[in-house]
Amino acid sequence: MIKLRQNKLRLSALTLFSLLSMTVLFMASCDEDNSVEGDPRLVIEGPTTALPESSATYDLQVDIGGTTTWTVEGPASLTSSTESVAELTFNSVGMVTITATNGSLEGIYYVNVNAVDAAVAASMKYGKANNGGTDTLFLSFPAPLASAPSLAMNGLNPADTSAFFRTEDNKSMAPFVSPGSSLSAAMAYKGSTMEYYALYTGGSGAGQAEAIVTSATVADNFGGSSIENVYLLIEEVDNVAPIGEIAFSSPVAKDSATVTISAMFNEAVRPVTVNPGEMNYIFIDISYGDGSGLVVQDTLWATDDPSVWSLDYTVNGESTTDPNTTLDVSVSRVADLAGNIPTVLEDASMLVDNVAPVATGMVQDVDPGTQVVEITTSGQWLVREGGEPAPVFVAEFAAGGTGAATLVLDPGTYDVYFIEVDAAGNVSNIESQLDFVVAAP
């Protein structure tokens, strides 16, 4: 809102016409930046609302010339100013009046510094705790508080009822309280007056604990609003151990192949911290049944599914004395979100196979004179006319087939080739049956 100081004048029609004509001529001579000495337009631009303890910048729409004086009235202070820009810091709730003048022109602008309604948002670090396990409750407020919020567990008083659960016939029920559990007072998080935390320690039993923010009051300069008896669903007490198993992306692999090793559980899991302050990892120990290869301890990594952790591992188990062995795996330092250690998580093994298979196969004319031939093999086969180059690579067998087959061939002489690739990826030598004759009818 802009207020301009003006004197009331009575003008005759002739005088008014003369003044309008002069104005048109004067405006035609104005600079393109609207910097006109005596221009009555003095507009302040900037936010019309603000929050306490925030800052904002306000600008003059045009250069009014001369020296600009900025003044501020109300719960705000002038942080800095130039001829055309002023920066303000708002201190508390109320109406702020901003004035800019160069001595002859004046602009006035109003800013409403709004109050902040008290509210609370809550979250847990894990959301689960077992008997004796500790979890952190985080409380977040939209504005600084006058003092730490008051916090209590729901269910400590006989008259307390659950704010989230009811009986099957829709009647009030007592909230779950884990025997032996506790909830600390709220404490400022890293000195903040908007972020607080409390420690929840689980007890026995199983259920969902509730808490109450019995009171919290916003600081006076933010409006001083309060909340009372806000109920929070905070922690699941869980004393049931998870169940897990170890799986491989392939039951068999050869040396230098990459396999995915996964630890899969019936619920979300996390690493176990043994020593405070150290990095948290789920460990996987890898060794080989015959002592070949490298014995390593590695770490599993979280997947999109929090109940599955995995590792891509390159097999290094080739042995000169025994080309076949086992890859043996165990997983440790893992628990569910409540801290329960798995009671079922057996070690697992997969076969490391470095022995190439032997290709076998046969082609025969089962009904001479009909041009019908049968191919018998457990691997792949390829038929080429006599005199064509022999295959060298496995990919060339894509032009043939796999397993037993019955073919109808034109009369002539053929060379038939056989190759086999086992489950580990080992490739046999190429065997052949040359100069096979298909007789004409």
Quick description:
The chain has 1 helix and 34 strands.
**Number of discrete helical segments:** 1
Shape: elongated
Estimate what percentage of residues fall within beta strands. 35-45%
The main β sheet shows up as:
8 strands, mixed
Number of domains: 4
Query: How many DSSP E strands?
Result: 34
How are the strands ordered across the major sheet? 18-20-24-23-22-25-27-19
Calculate Rg over CA atoms: 41 Å
CATH fold naming of the largest domain: Immunoglobulin-like
Word description of this protein:
With 441 residues, the chain is mainly beta. It is built from one helix and 34 strands. It is elongated, with a radius of gyration of 41 Å. The N terminus is likely disordered.
